[in-house]
UniProtKB/TrEMBL annotation:
PANTHER family: D-AMINO ACID OXIDASE, D-ASPARTATE OXIDASE
One Gene Ontology cellular component annotation held by this UniProt entry: cytoplasm
Molecular-function GO terms, alphabetical: D-amino-acid oxidase activity; FAD binding
GO biological process: D-amino acid catabolic process
Name assigned to this protein: FAD dependent oxidoreductase domain-containing protein
Organism field: Hebeloma cylindrosporum
Phylogenetic placement of the source organism: Eukaryota, Fungi, Dikarya, Basidiomycota, Agaricomycotina
Amino acid sequence: MASAHASTASAKKEIIVLGAGVVGLTTALKLQQQGTYQVAIVSEVLPSDPKTIRYTSRWAGAHHVYNAVNETNQHQLEEETFNVMWELSSSGSDAEECFLRIPQTEYLFVDQPTPEPLEKMPHFRYLKPDELIPGAKSGLTFSTVSIDVPIYLNYLLTRFLAQGGRILRGSVLHINQVLEGGTGLFSGGSKDDPLPAALIVCVGIAARFLGGVEDKDVYPIRGQTVLIRAPWVRFGRTETLDEEGNKTYIIPRRSSDVIVGGTRTPDDWFPRSRPETTLDILTRAFALCPELAPPEIRATRTPTLDDVMPHIVGEGCGLRPARKGGFRLEVEWIEGASVRREGRIPVVHNYGHGGYGYQISWGSANKVLELLNDALGTSQSS
Ligand SMILES: Cc1cc2nc3c(=O)[nH]c(=O)nc-3n(C[C@H](O)[C@H](O)[C@H](O)COP(=O)(O)OP(=O)(O)OC[C@H]3O[C@@H](n4cnc5c(N)ncnc54)[C@H](O)[C@@H]3O)c2cc1C
């Protein structure tokens, strides 16, 4: 039995996924599920590490709400992701604890986009004029999921490991290091370790600096948030303030924490919260959602922001990995990457997902699998 298993495993092509954020983990799982690839993840930061500015996925809200962009391809991938997440969040699913299904309300201080991509969401309807908040031009409501990001990232990691995936901590300076050395560089293995048949690059904002990629179209859109423990808030609420997409948002997580935000500042690399920004976020969030104050206070008097302050459990900021021209999802053939092999090797890029990395994660992983199968001549049934 043991040798049969070994020969099956060794018949599988070795694929290395670089990066263990939501994009890398989801991609690795998707490739693994086909059954024809032996997948390993190499990453500098892992989901259970302390939060760091080098790992955006821990800072996300996160929820699934289509952005008002006329990008059909993006919406297609986001829709594929929503379908997976809706299923994962269903009662009795093994991932149910990672999600909260919520009623979501959006107020727009800008013109309504046409077509409105949110119309396809469950329980969608436009708000009536008397349901709008002052200053809002229009509004809508629907159902969606919020994602409890620390729990979800660890769920993805655990599922990947349970299905035979390998995770190696490693910091890569140039992609040629892994193309020549494979996972053996990080596992203490020998130079006879199998070389990867392909490399998948899911390094988020680091795509700007990683040797062999150095994509100068990648830039940060910094987002600052505050975390409030408010188990009584079980709905999402957002106001879109301007055409640049600045928003105030309330995102409850299943765990009872509520992320309130936000900010979006292009090319701002500052890695810590700014106190004046925190106060601005809280002021906007409380005006949009006085329900952040505990219900027992609201039952007796008009609440103030001071009633919310004792329930703050954290604050922070992350760098959304944006890219001029949109995300990069394509194959690049690298020539002469290694003295240990001849010919070209496919590198599949999957980065630059800005403020929508969660809600596009499964769709872009599907696309990576398609690109990889084409590049390696693998059929899904092989
Ligand atoms: C405040 C905020 C709110 C957000 N809200 C939402 C939301 O509601 N919905 C949504 O869909 N998205 C949201 N996002 C966006 C989302 O968080 C990102 O798009 C997503 O996390 C990007 O994931 P990633 O895997 O590409 O990058 P990351 O999470 O940054 O992961 C990159 C990985 O690559 C590894 N790596 C990098 N360089 C190297 C190297 N040289 N060697 C080895 N490993 C390396 C890192 O260690 C890490 O594991 C939000 C972001 C922020 C900041």
